[in-house]
Amino acid sequence: MSGLKCLSPDTNSLHLRSLSNMASSNQSSPHFAHLFRQITWEELDPGYINQLISLALLEDLQGVGLKNVPTHPGDATTDALPLSHPGQAQLIARQPMTLCGIHLVANILAAYGGDATFTALRQDGAQLQTGDVIGTLRGTTATLLKAERVILNFLQHLSGIATQAARYSALLADSQTVLLDTRKTTPGLRMLEKYAVACGGGWNHRLGLFDRVMLKDNHLASSGAHAGQHLADAVRLAHKRHPNLAIEVEVDHIDQIQPILQAGADVILLDNFSIAQLEEAIALIGNQAYTEASGGITLQTLPELAQLGLDFISCGALIHQSQWQDIGMDWMHAQP
User: What is the mean pLDDT of residues 241-245?
Assistant: First the structure.
């Protein structure tokens, strides 16, 4: 598994032990490597990153998204002032957080003309305290001012996700259960947001519809395979058509589990099960498949769920309930 550099040493070793134990104790699935991962910055497409930055720039300077774009594009404020002289600013954490997005800063400055540089003092995954200096920007004053909001938007949003993931991950620190994200992501930002989850110590569930067969309730209902033999046949058909992908099946009641086990599903997703129902399901499944709990996962419910022996807990709140973190750009120096 990759992406471990985003985690602290203690969290790293814990998760590595967890993964090793799972791989050795549960031999039911030949697709273990497909079940979860931690996406790294190096795996992200530079073209994708630059496209996102370009769109953000065009929103600010040219009103992209409007049917009638402005007749006078650009930064009206900086264009009105004599700001061609050198300047210097620092990015400062205004609250405790887990940092994410540091690699974007240099790309953003390049998009605004390339006459500015960034020196990072902290890396993605770092735990910051209020007042910590994240890095220093140097360059033409107008460039730094134009790029300021786009830089902060990316950093604040991604650090919010990483901070949220770190909070949730900490509650599983003494457990062998792995915390996963979901596909509940901002359209167009999925890979960046999943990267932020990894920087906070969480793990990535499937990246898209392409890398796993996941038979959810609507798939089963629409194909008439919600229970019994029809359900088992659906799982077998999925295995036949996608022999190299993991097969995961969502269930909402205990009676669905046995047919799925007989058909050889790799993961059983226990959706919105009570604690008592989860305990019953885990005992029934044993080592025949991996277990995953989802639905209504909160900071309050995680401690009890962590004690049940689940293989995975997946949680959309890592992303969709995260809050932007407060990061500021403080001007240090200018030479008019």
Answer: 93
